[in-house]
Amino acid sequence: MTKELAALSATETSRHFASGELSPVEATQAVVDNIDALNPYINAFCWLDPDGALAAAKDSETRWQRGKPLSPLDGVTFTVKDLSVTKGWPTRRGSRAIGPEGPWLEDSPSVARMREAGAVPLGKTTVPEFGATGTTRSELCGVTRNPWDLSKSPGGSSGGSSAAAAANMGAIALASDAAGSIRWPAAFTGTFGLKTTHGRVPDYPSSYLGTLAVIGPITRTVADTALCMDVIAQDDPRDSYALPPPPSYADTAGATDLSGMRILFSPDLGFVDVDPEIDDMVRRAVDELRELGATVDETGHVMNDPGKILSTLMTPGLANAFRLFGFTEADEAMMHPVLLEYVKAGRETPLLDYLHAREKREQLGAQMREIYRDYDLLVTPTTPLPTHGAEEESSSDPRYRNLPNPLVLTSPFNLTKQPAASLPIGLNADGLPVGMQVVGPLYGEADILRMCRAYEAAHPFARPDLDALLRSPPEQPVPRGIASMQEAVSAVAAE
Predict the structure, then answer these.
(1) Planar angle of CA 333, 335, 341, nearest 5 degrees
(2) Would you call 243 helix, strand, or coil by DSSP?
(3) Strand partners, 77
(4) What element of type H or E holds 435?
(5) Each residue of 118-147: b (16+ CB within 10 Å) or e?
(6) Could you tell me what percent of the chain has a pLDDT over 70?
(7) CB-CB contact of 489 with 100 (8 Å)
(8) Got the DSSP string for 391-421?
(9) What is the pLDDT of residues 108-156, one digit of tens each?
(10) How confident is the model at residue 476 (pLDDT cuts 50, 70, 90)?
(11) What is the DSSP pairing of strand 262-265 with strand 377-381?
(12) Is 472 a catalytic residue?
């Protein structure tokens, strides 16, 4: 029964709370038990607070019994990516150069809104160091693995978030995305991930990657993302870029008919080589959108490769983070070589090159706005290739030697600030998930949720066989992510 309760979506859980069939304490205990069983295999967490979670669940139970829940998410479990600050919990960003001592005095806006809604925080999920690479592994936390195949990566940088969501270790995962870090892991783990319009979900402290980065949810259903968005999109005065709160998303996620929706399909944006099997699967999904009533046109070209624009803007952001944290040479000696390469490039970027890249970014944004004069949504593959090995930075599979890094299809829409989601569309021949990217106009989250919910209703998302993970003992009974944090906090307390 524990496994079944942990697998309930946020929407289902809330419905059971309202009917009295289930209590938040029972639901939270089931998720905590599931984490105890599965996290030793997956290593999705770098911090857990089961006692705090159960205390929050008890408070929620009292509110439901009185008929006064704070929101539909009251008592629903959630996790927080270890790039977002959390009151009382360390935020180490996957780096040994950031100590656990704190003080950790405040929650980021999305975490604060979830707590205010009565949701139950479980812990922090693993990230690569400073979220800078596409494989979720670090010297601090070790390797995070994909619940579909432990030899594979759940992607990055929200790999811990997506792995936790896919393995029923929390109903909602709060994550972030500056180049694909929500959509890429969602595609690799068969979950639904939404990168929001910049400013739609308030954030604080501001990301060191500036307006490239946003907060968004990773969930097991589209409806759960809609419920979460109704909470985390509320205002927070600490974010000067925050947009006014939108109308409720919950109703838009109930669609089953796409009549009247105009969709533009691009198989490759005009410059990306895509794995033929992924291309075939996305084309089949596009045909299914037509069957649901949408009008779909195909285009051979959307844009030229904006990769140079992205790197010119992103690497100085990482360099500035190092300035803000005041890292020393000794700190840098402990850091990932790829991260240090990015920082070096950022420090060496001429100011005029940076300003020119900003101009190019603005032009790209205007170019994309023209598309939405005629179309409601753009769809593409989420990634051009399937997931790689859990301990690899990129795929070593010879079939994909000439294919690009997976973020090339996602990162353009961080430049344009548009909302975009990864929608699970099935499994490839190796039994691994594949995602289709759905890109909306600025502020167009509602149309994305409508289309994705209609697809999900017709084609329910596949789920990994979690029982298969339990057939052999885990490599490390206490996962590296948890052990390293526990040891660090204990050392500080002993001083």
Answers:
(1) 95
(2) coil
(3) 120
(4) strand 433-439
(5) bbbbbbbbbbbbbbbbbbbbbebbbbbbbb
(6) 99
(7) yes
(8) T-SS---GGGTTS--GGGGTTHHHHTT--EE
(9) 999 999 999 999 999 999 999 999 999 999 999 999 999 999 999 999 9
(10) confident
(11) parallel
(12) no
Determine which one of 9, 95, 157, 395 is catalytic. 157
344 is catalytic: no
Q: How far apart are CA 114 and CA 296, in angstroms?
A: 37
Q: Are 86 and 80 in contact (CB under 8 A)?
A: yes
Q: Indicate which residue of 84, 181, 266, 422 is catalytic.
A: 181
Residue 26's Cβ-count burial label (10 Å; 0-12, 13-18, 19+) is: middle
The pTM for the full model equals 0.97
Give domain 2-307+354-494's CATH architecture.
Alpha-Beta Complex (3.90)
Reply yes or no on whether 81 is catalytic: yes
The encoded tokens of residue 84 equal 């977002």
Map tokens 């994305």 to a residue.
448
Structure-derived torsion over alpha carbons of residues 248, 254, 258, 262, reported in degrees to the nearest 10? 20
For residue 23, the tally of other CB atoms under 10 A from its CB is 18
Active site residue: 9, 23, 60, 81, which one?
81
First vs last Cα of the chain: how many Å apart?
A: 43
Tell me if 50 sits within 8 A of 65, measured CB to CB: no
**86 has which bridge partners?**
89
